[in-house]
Amino acid sequence: MFHLTVHGDDRIARVEPELYGHFTEHIGGVFYDGIWVGEDSPVPNIRGLRLELIEKMRQIHAPVIRWPGGCFAEIYNWRDGIGPRENRPTRINWWYRDDGRLEPNAVGTHEFVDFCRLIGAEPYFAANITATTPLDIRDWIDYCNSPAGSTTLARLREQNGSREPFGVKYWGVGNETWGGGGNMTGEVYAHEYRKYAMIMDNACAGLELICSGANHSDWHWPNDVLRVIEPSARLMSGLSLHFYCGAAGDPLSFSEEEWYRQLRQALDVERAIERNWGFVVGYGMEKHARLVIDEWGCWHPGGTGPSPHMKEYGIEPAPNNPQMVGNLFEQQSTMRDAMVAAATLNLFNNNADKIRMATVAQLVNNLHCLFLAGGDRFICTPTYHVFDMMQGHMGGDALRISGSKGEISRDRYSIPGVSVSASVKEGALTVTLANMNVTESAEAELSFPGMSAADTASYALLTASDPHAHNSYEDPEAVGLRRYEGPFDGILRVPPFSVLTASVKLT
Ligand code: AHR
User: Fold this and answer.
1) How many CA atoms lie within 13 A of 123 on its CB side?
2) Is 16 a known active-site residue?
């Protein structure tokens, strides 16, 4: 039995709803056949956008969606994606050499903002600072945000169907500028940031500008960048961090050791959060900026998704990837991916004072995805259910938890037996307990000094008969969420490799 104390008088910070955000790139099957089916499609859609996916995103109250990349962002010209669709140019997608797909620009600024509005999410645009100029990005901001009828670009927006401004608040200043986004050194990027941020900020009040941050555990990057940016700290609201867990065996048939190794990799995000936050504080920028973890999740070897071979889309294998199966980077998602998602979101809650936003990569038909879709087929992955069951934390106040979480040891590493977070909102306490043990059940006794809880609770349990369980087109409900009301005596009981959220009224 684990004994955990939830400290009602030790509030970490508000869990910004944007910690539960999403990332969508023009890559593989994310947009074309995933989100976008086209207005004339027999697949139910709203103005070309897949209806079922929109409904599922509404159910989890998705707060923010990042777009258009990723690496794709760094070759994107926003002007290609406005105006009548039939006149839009076809371009070489960033990922063309990997999957042979060209970019038709059917989804551009208007379609993406429509997608966000239908869901009730805020758009977060990643600006191309490698292959355009500050003026191009300033123009994009003008096009999106200037009041109706004011500027020439606001009038162009109106001609293209939207009199009202889009009000895009979040802007990334480049993506992975140490790699695909310009292959820069930290110092060079920092000077570019200062230039772009000045011109972007000046175009529109109230923007949150996000600095392109480190990959995984590169501690040099944030130091090199923030040292140069610090004098213009006012112009930075977020420092980005990308944190993918690398491969730990096959995504569908991993061993017990690989289960734990994958979780160890995922839990290391906390070290990255602490280190990066240390640089923000060290350079005295914490009053303006928090972390934005705008790509995270498991990155398994490709080819485990259900999409057909590219030839079925009429696309020949790409030169860099002649063996490619299905959509680029499309992967299946098992209970292990769900566990990574739950443990990661728990860590985000527990570090809510340091994080402004986080967007999981990527929404559909790709890396750690919530959905798989193709033609009229559409399913939710176990990861979707984690976002569903944990949504009660969004906007709550995260509370400090102490006590022993146990330890599972392997030869070279160990992990805690459980992952846990708690928050209060509107007179209710929400606790998520993920049992990371793949063979044993967990029981945790919670105490809440200073709070008294009702004797019944609402529960959501994500469990399965096998840690490899996943949903497929043939068996779309193999892993589902069970919601129920039940007695609450302060003890949470969770089966192996399962996640439980309990929500209890405070009396
Ligand atoms: O999510 C896939 C790719 O991973 C993104 O395009 C890039 O930003 C990262 O390297």
Assistant:
1) 25
2) no
What residues form DSSP beta bridges with 170?
Answer: 124, 208
- Stated pTM of the model: 0.97
Assign 493 to helix, strand or coil.
Answer: strand
Phi, psi of 129 (to 5 degrees): -110, 5
* 164 labelled catalytic: no
Beta strands at 397-403 and 2-14: parallel, antiparallel or unpaired: antiparallel
The pLDDT tens digits for 494-507 are 999 999 999 999 99
Burial of residue 343 (number of CB atoms within 10 Å: 0-12, 13-18, 19+):
buried
Please give the single-letter amino acid code of residue 28: G
pLDDT higher than threshold 70 for residue 309: no
Helices and strands: H and E segment counts in the chain: 11, 25
Long-range (24+ apart) CB contacts under 8 A made by 287-290 are 288/233, 288/234, 288/236, 288/237, 289/211, 289/233, 289/236, 289/237, 289/238, 289/239, 289/356, 290/237, 290/238, 290/239, 290/354, 290/355, 290/356
- From the list 18, 208, 295, 330, the catalytic residue is 295
Record the tokens describing residue 414, joined without a space. Answer: 């160990």
Residue 295 CB–ligand 1 contact under 6 Å: yes
Residue 214: closest CA among 206, 225, 205 = 225
Q: At 323, which amino acid appears?
A: Q
Instruction: Report the SS3 class of residue 53.
Output: helix
Please tell me the distance between residue 71's alpha carbon and the centre of ligand 1 in angstroms.
Answer: 6
The 3-class secondary structure across 240-299, one letter per residue, is EEEEEECCCCCCCCCCHHHHHHHHHHHHCHHHHHHHHHHHHHHCCCCCCCEEEEEEEEEC
The region, left, alpha or beta by phi > 0 then psi within -120 to 50, assigned to residue 256 is: alpha
Q: Is 366 helix (H, G, I), strand (E, B) or coil?
A: strand
Q: Which residue has the tokens 């080819």?
A: 303
Question: What count of residues does the chain have?
Answer: 507
Is 70 near ligand 1, meaning CB less than 6 Å away?
yes
Q: Which of 355, 333, 344, 359 is nearest to 390 (CA)?
A: 344
- State pLDDT tens for residues 226-258: 999 999 899 999 999 999 998 899 999 999 999
The burial class, CB within 10 Å (0-12 / 13-18 / 19+), for 159 is: exposed
With b for 16 or more beta-carbon neighbours within 10 A and e for fewer, the 73-89 pattern comes to bbbbebbebbbebeebe
**What are the residues facing 485 on neighbouring strands?**
458
Beta partners for 434?
A: 419, 499
Cα 482 to the chain's mean position, in Å? Answer: 24
